[in-house]
Amino acid sequence: VLENQDLQDLIKPQNVVFHSLNFNSTLHWQPGRAGEARDTVYFVQYKVYGQSTWQNKDECWGIQNHVCDLTNETSDIREPYYGRVKAASAGIYSDWSPSCRFTPWRETIIGPPTVTVIHSNKSLILKLQAPRSPYKKKRGSKIPMTNYYDLLYQIFIINNLLEEQHRVLVYEGKDKIIKIEDLRPGISYCVEAKTYVPALDRSSVYSSRQCTTL
C-alpha cells in the first residue's frame, strides 16, 4: 500500500509555467508522475513577488483543466508574479508546485501587426495595426501594445518570380501607413510584417502572408 506521502508526491503537478501573448497570461502545468486519475482536480493560487499571502484564483479552484487564465491578476505588467498549483485525487492533496518568477512586461510574447494591403499599378500601400492587449481603455476599446512599448514595424517583400522566395526587408519604423513604390506590374508580390521591440531586442513571428499581383 502506498503511503499518503508517496501518493502526494506522485500526483504533485509538474512543469508549472506562465505563457503570455500580448499580456494574455495563462498558467500551465502537467499531471504528476502518476499520470492522471479521472477524479484529479487542481487548485491555483498567485501572488506578487514580495507579498507573503497567496490569493486563491476562484475560477481555477477544483478544476480538471491544466491551464488557468491569470490575465486580470497580472495586469500590473512591470510587477513580478508567481503562480502555484496543487492536485487532489481520492481525498489526497499534493504539495504546491510553484512557477518561476514571471514579469509580464519582460516576458510576454508580442504578436505581429495586422496588415492590410491596397495595390495600384506600380506600388503597394500597407496599413498596419499594432497588436492589442486584453486591457481596456475607459471607453471600452482594447489598449494597443504601442502604449506599453516603443515598437517598430518591419516590412518584408517576397517577389514570387524569384525561386528562393527570400524575404527582403523594405521598411523598418513606426509609420502605420507605408507606400512601397517602383514595383513591376504583372508580378506577384507577397508582404509579411513583424513587430520589433528595441528595449528587449525581440521580434514577433511573421504576420500572415498577404499576396497580390500588380
Automatic annotation (TrEMBL):
Organism, scientific name: Cuculus canorus
InterPro entries in the record: FN3_dom (IPR003961), FN3_sf (IPR036116), Ig-like_fold (IPR013783), Interferon/interleukin_rcp_dom (IPR015373), Tissue_factor (IPR001187), Type-II_Cytokine-TF_Rcpt (IPR050650)
Coiled-coil segments on the chain, per record: none
Function: Initiates blood coagulation by forming a complex with circulating factor VII or VIIa. The [TF:VIIa] complex activates factors IX or X by specific limited proteolysis. TF plays a role in normal hemostasis by initiating the cell-surface assembly and propagation of the coagulation protease cascade.
Membership in a protein family: Belongs to the type II cytokine receptor family. Belongs to the tissue factor family.
GO MF annotations, alphabetized: cytokine receptor activity
Keyword Protein biosynthesis annotated: no
GO process annotations (BP): blood coagulation
Assembly: Interacts with HSPE; the interaction, inhibited by heparin, promotes the generation of activated factor X and activates coagulation in the presence of activated factor VII.
Highest rank taxon of the organism: Eukaryota
Localization, UniProt: Membrane
Main location: membrane
GO annotations of cellular component type: plasma membrane
Name used for this protein in its record: Tissue factor
Keywords: Blood coagulation, Disulfide bond, Glycoprotein, Hemostasis, Lipoprotein, Membrane, Palmitate, Receptor, Signal
Keyword Cytoplasm: no
Domain named Fibronectin type-III: residues: 12-107
Residue stretches spanning the membrane: none
Pfam families listed in its UniProt record: Interfer-bind, Tissue_fac
